[in-house]
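**Tokenised fold:**
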Amino acid sequence: MVEFFMIIPLLIYLGIFIFAIYVVITILKLMNQRNEYLKEIRDELKKGNSDR
């Protein structure tokens, strides 16, 4: 029974670590998506300026 309670803090730290990795990966994906969207806007603006 005591061994079970000794494992609980380890599982909590492992959960926090996995959650932190998930947050970092999600933020990186969102930043990449934002950059792609900004590239599309940039290309549209370049195309609009070359038509003049």
Q: What stands out?
A: The two ends are 78 Å apart (CA to CA).
